[in-house]
Amino acid sequence: MKNTDNDEYKWSTNIAPLIGIPMYDKPPGIDVPIELRPRAEYDINLELLVNKVQNNFKSVFNDILNNDNDKKIKINNLVDDLIHCYASLINNKNEVENEKIQSIWTNIINLIPKENKELGLDLYNNLFKIIVKPFVADYLHNDDLFAYQRIAGANPVALIGVSDLPSNFPLSNEQYQFVMGENDSLSNALKQNRIYMLNYSYLSGVVAEDGYTKPEGSPGTNPMPGYSYAAIALFSVSLETKELTAVAIQCGQDPDDNNEMFLATEDVNSDRYWAWQRAKYVIQAADESEHQLSTHLGLTHLLMEAFALATLRKLPKDHPLHRLLITHFEATNRINHNATLALLGEHQFVDMLFAAPLENMAKAVIDIRLSYDFKAHYFPEALKQRKVDDINAFPSYPYRDDGLLIWHAIKDWVREYINIYYVTSTELSLDKSFQAWVKDIIDNGKVKGFTQIKTKDELIDTLTMIIFTSSAQHAAVNYSQPGWLMYAPHTIGTMAYPKPTSVTGSTQKQWLDMLPKVYRASQKIIIYTLLGELYHGKLGEYIGLNYKLVFNDHEIIKKNGPLDKFRKNLANIQKIIQERNGKRPYPYEYLIPENIPASINI
């Protein structure tokens, strides 16, 4: 890949396991340069979270060990070391932490008694001592929450509107009315744009329908099969409540391959009930897989890596676009090299908590990132493409509704900012630094759909997308993880027991058998606490590493100027979302402006 001799920051497409994705070429074994690190309070906040997680699991394991004080001392020391190792993956003290984590987990597993499955859900509830058990634990089998997760959960981009059912999803009108009642019909719902689906067909290469065996934890621990499926689910917007309602699930792509049509029921006495609960868990596993590999990792972290690096390479520090963008890239390259690559390591987070072979998942991430069409996914356009933009047919969609407020606020701010520095579109072609930035992204960044920018409107849209993805989109899919993904009985990327194959006859025990062992459930709590509770920086702040405002142009920072208007707009959006949350079945807080960091730094 071409580099100019005077470029301090080099591109590389040879960083394992993400071979082919352009990233900053950081030498192994050392941290990134200081200018790519976050401000000092980042490490302070991280240490507070480390203490929280340490104290939680000391309490968990001490309860398990009862009066064995010698083992308690050993396990407390192991927990201290373990959580510091996880933190070191984030702030990159040393790249040998992966192997150390595996060794520590092995020692912990050997110290604690074999888990007692007869405890049922208490086995998982007892893992929360200081860390608060997520709210979803109280609504574990609730179908309304299952549907609401599609529009306000950690992966709110999977739902797609349909006007016809796919040929491999043979839901009948009779089956539809079994759930939605005789006052509605499948044909009318389709005509009225009220049918929405999840279809994880493109995950076919990263599922384990026949089971794939991995060690329970580090190498040498018990081998365990894991299962996941390219499932399909159908939802309908209720004529009565106007809310999204779960209707049916098929646990694979081929209806003739032991994939029955499971229909929603909340009747605990029904012989269909536990089969339905098992089918929902199949969907949860597919959804968490898509969330981590695509929505979160591929399409926020790794996508913005290219723009962050090109900005460092080609835009001088006093360039207006550098000033506009640089705080939106604070610590992005660092977190991508440290935690992202480490968590993709063998026997680490992705490998342990998702069913497919690690190499298949890494390949999927690469394919997703490189095939993603940047311009085709501007937020309003992405909603149209998924056919979820019709507020009359689909009135309640918190991610969409709050996201549009943020998108338009960012676009208004970018427009006013750009108009100060570029009076006409012709001036873009005369800006050599800007042209070098565009060329670097095109030549080296491998961002599909990113082409020459010839007009101010194109530039405004491009910058809006970059800022939105770095701030709001990442906030929506990262900070939702503790609430929606941390509690293993609610969702897991690898199930310990196969899918249901009959619409009747399943038992609660079979559902419980699908849940992971304590090691994996604990790992989810650790990772999602560290990743999902570390907030650093804020949208609209624009404070540099020197703790000073990055702008020095009076036209930008004056009273009622562009920056002041943007901040006031965000404050107004905050009030609007808080009012909306008062009317929603569950509050949606990830796009409240004060909860949106400016950059992808965790």
TrEMBL record:
Recite the lineage of the species. Answer: Bacteria, Pseudomonadati, Pseudomonadota, Gammaproteobacteria, Enterobacterales
The UniProt record lists the keyword Transferase: no
Keyword terms, alphabetized: Metal-binding, Oxidoreductase
Q: Which residues form the Lipoxygenase domain?
A: 141-602
Which GO biological process annotations does it have? lipid oxidation
Question: Protein name, please?
Answer: Lipoxygenase domain-containing protein
Domain of life, per the record?
Bacteria
**Gene Ontology MF: a single term:** oxidoreductase activity, acting on single donors with incorporation of molecular oxygen, incorporation of two atoms of oxygen
Give one Pfam family, short name only. Answer: Lipoxygenase
